[in-house]
Design a protein that fits this description.
By secondary structure, the protein is an alpha/beta fold. The chain has five helices and five strands, in the order H-E-H-E-H-E-H-E-E-H. Strand 4 and strand 5 (113-119) form a beta hairpin. The chain is elongated and about 65 Å long.
Length: 136
C-alpha cells in the first residue's frame, strides 16, 4: 500500500516538473512581442504562464513612448515572461472585455488570470516591480 502511495506521489511530482520544463522551453523561444487579436487572445493568455499584455493604439503618443520600454522588458525576461500587444482600435472585443478606457494599459496575466495592471505611462522600474511580484 505504501509503495503505491509513493508511486502516485512521485508521478505527480514528475508531472509537475515536466510541466515546468515545458513552460520554460516554450518561453525561451519567444523573443519578440506577440500580436494579439480577438481571435487568438484567449488561447494565448492560457498558453503562457506569465504574459504581459500592452493595450495600445498607433495614434497614442504615450503608447509610442512606452513601446520600446515594454519591448525591453520582454527581452530582459526571456524565459520567464512573454509580451503581447493588442491594438485597441482593431480589437474592440478584447478591449471591452477588460474595460480598457485609457491607453496605454498593461495587464499581467498569470496562468490565464489577470493579476495586475498599470494604466498610463510609467517607468521601466515600475513595470519590473510588477513583473517581479509574480515570477515564480
Amino acid at each position: 500500500m505504501e509503495d503505491e502511495e509513493l508511486r502516485v506521489i512521485n508521478e505527480k511530482r514528475m508531472k509537475k516538473l515536466q510541466q515546468i520544463v515545458n513552460e520554460k522551453e516554450l518561453l525561451k523561444n519567444i523573443k519578440e512581442p506577440l500580436n494579439l487579436d480577438d481571435s487568438n487572445f484567449a488561447q494565448t493568455i492560457n498558453k503562457y504562464p506569465l504574459l504581459l499584455v500592452d493595450f495600445w493604439a498607433p495614434w497614442c503618443g504615450p503608447c509610442r513612448m512606452m513601446s520600446p520600454i515594454i519591448d525591453q522588458v520582454g527581452k530582459e525576461y526571456i524565459g520567464k515572461l512573454v509580451v503581447g500587444k493588442v491594438n485597441v482600435d482593431e480589437n474592440p472585443h478584447i478591449s471591452g472585455q477588460f474595460g480598457i478606457s485609457s491607453i496605454p494599459t498593461l495587464i499581467l496575466f498569470k496562468r490565464g488570470q489577470a493579476v495586475n495592471n498599470i494604466i498610463g505611462s510609467v517607468s521601466k522600474s515600475r513595470i519590473d516591480e510588477m513583473v517581479r511580484m509574480h515570477l515564480e
